[in-house]
Specification:
Helix content: 10-25%
Distance between the termini: 24 Å
CATH superfamily: Regulatory factor, effector binding domain
Number of domains: 1
Largest sheet: 9 strands, antiparallel
Shape: globular
CATH architecture: Alpha-Beta Barrel
């Protein structure tokens, strides 16, 4: 059904963008990206056009999962440095670490099943466990809103069991 991920050690990244607190039942992703995407061209020292959708969960988020649990989601781009930060945007340091990188292709409605596979099938049967670091989705040139051909990378923080 799904391919095994690539295991990658991410180098730390400097990110600039917006964040919002939300839950799955109070999903504010559209609001977050609607506010960020028109302004991202104001970020003058961006490394490329890829968007990092960063998710920060507290340590109990997945242990006692509920769609009402809150988390912080960021919409960001990677920058060379923090010398010029547009007004109204914040910085975020994505620290280096080990990640399982999955490719997701399809519509947003299939994403939940895909993530369920990762957490309930792949992860328990792997030699890894979740690490308490940010998760993120890398939205590059192949990411297309509401397209069955849309592709993105899903980065899950891991460590050896």
């Amino acid at each position: 059904m799904h391919k095994d991920p690539k295991i990658i050690t991410l180098e730390s990244k400097k990110l600039v963008g917006h964040s919002i607190e939300m839950s799955l039942i109070g999903n504010k992703t559209f609001q977050l990206f609607s506010g960020f995407m028109p302004l991202r061209k104001q970020i003058k020292n961006a490394i490329n056009t890829d968007v990092y959708e960063v998710l920060i969960y507290n340590s109990n988020y997945l242990k006692s999962f509920s769609s009402a649990n809150t988390f912080t989601k960021w919409a960001t781009v990677a920058v060379e440095n923090y010398d010029t930060i547009p007004e109204g945007m914040d910085t975020f340091n994505l620290d280096s670490g080990l990640y399982a990188v999955f490719n997701y292709k399809g519509l947003p409605k299939g994403f939940g099943v895909f993530m369920s596979y990762i957490y309930t099938n792949w992860l328990p049967n792997s030699k890894y466990q979740l690490d308490q670091r940010p998760h993120f989705n890398l939205l590059g040139e192949k990411a297309k809103r509401n397209s069955p051909d849309s592709e993105e990378e899903v980065w899950i923080p891991i460590k050896l069991k």
